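Researcher: Going back to the complex we discussed earlier. I've cleaned up the inputs and rechecked each line, so this should be the final set. Can you rerun the prediction on the complete assembly and write out the structure?
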Amino acid sequence: MADPKALYQEVILDHNRKPRNYGTLPSANHHAEGHNPLCGDRIDVALALDDDKIGAIAFEGESCAICKASASMMTVAVKGRSRAEAETLIREFREMAIGKIGADGLAHLGRLSVFAGVRDLPTRVKCAILPWHTLHAAFNAVTSTSTEAEDDPMHAPIGDA
Amino acid sequence: MTALETAVRAQSAPAYDVERIRADFPILGLEVNGHPLVYLDNAASSQMPRQVIDRLVRYATTQHANVNRGVHYLSETATHEYEQARHKIQRFINAREDREVIFTSGTTDAINLVTHGYGRKFIGAGDEIILTTLEHHSNIVPWQMLAEEKRARIRVVPVDDAGELDLDAYEKLFNAHTRFVGVMHVSNALGTINPVKRMIALAHAHGVPVLVDGAQAVPHLPVNVQDLDSDFYAFSGHKMCGPTGIGILHGKASLLEKMNPYKGGGDMILSVTFEKTTYNSLPHVFEAGTPPIAGAVGIGAAVDYLSAIGMAAIAAHEHELLEYATAQMSRMKGVRIIGTAARKASVISFTIDGVHPHDVGTLLNEEGIAVRTGHHCAQPVMQRFHVPATSRASFALYNTMAEVDALIAGIRNVQKVFA
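Model: Rerun complete. Updated structure for the full complex:
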């Protein structure tokens, strides 16, 4: 088993302490709420989609450090990108978290690869993925999603593939 | 204390040899993430001593067959061992008779047996069931299902800031519609030891029967169901050094005999035709199908093991651990203990400012320390104390002061990482 300490790297702790794009977004036209009933993580993602481009994005909620840092770094990563690009990132992030991609894929994910360590902590994978699934739900105008829902987004195919 | 007094005390109460007890538990020798395992998740499930493990192996290798059927040697042996286990439970909790001890798959199953067998027969529209804010979901949801089916109403005893039940409010909940009380003996989320004997006497004064969820009490306190005068008392094997898949429902025979059967099937009948089935007597009428025989033998061995050490001695040892840990944690800045009742069993629920319990759990695990994080299947308790979740350390007979120190150091490390 890899050193789980690797998960709590400074960049994650920093985004937990000072989350970026935290708060509400009055100009939002897409919105979704994600919930993990197992640990009580709740995250709200709002975005202003402008001609398929993410003009603005914000999140808020109550969650563990892994979930909050993941949400914060996600907003930084997808802001200004197209919906298709964001969906690709969502798919890649998910594959990284469940240990499906190797070093090449990690390089593509850039700073987000700090979350690769969750693959060794099965109970924490959902914490890291929740914001990304919530973003996916927001694109599809699904108003709320849950990691334990019948249409569990964790198990649903993600992205535009 | 003089040397003589010390000597006299030592003689009257032999020292509790925790290292000797630890040597009985093979799993405690594990290393986790390069550290010796510090197992503080006993309220979720305790570990099994070699005496129980060996007993399970002996049963499987020399005594196993189905019970209550067949005239051959092994069937008779298995039946004998199964009934011996029942007898051990009867003595352990001081039940009046063996037939008042029903084997179930666990506490949840035992409570469902009561909601189905008693509740569906004797609780109807407009009737009221009293539960408490502290209850585990297993003593809430079965009653809600019953209430929905029967259009009955659930009333809830509030809890104060220390985690103690409001007994005045409890008393005021009784009225002409009250039909049942369900209360846990020891809170799994906070550790509060509820005054169940008094609560039972109060309910009986109103002619209302009481079910006590004893899952967290039987492993940690001497329990005497006749002294408590409980009508039903439920607990699980795997929280008291026994295996999973086995639990106990103790019920007064006079009540059990009036109840509907729970599950239908083999063993719970005397005769079956397609026109009419006659049911078996206690306890078999509530043990349909092939029961968890190995589990029963295992819980019997666990009772032997705990009895040899003595529940009073175990309670005293765990109380020392609780006091020590509470004193240490109370002094830590940014650490809040949730549940400060005057009478507590060995459970400490806590939060660390600015750190989510799941991060606490992951970082402690890194040092080999196992605690539970989450809502502890007691979401109403979390709502009452305005926290989404807590971290929980729960001690058992084999834990040590050094393990409390490891926990405290682990919490300091969490605070350092998140500083």
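Model: Worth noting: Chain A touches chain B at residues 1, 3-5, 7-8, 13, 16, 38-40, 62-66, 121, 123-124, 127 (CB under 8 Å).
Researcher: Good, that matches what I expected from the previous run.
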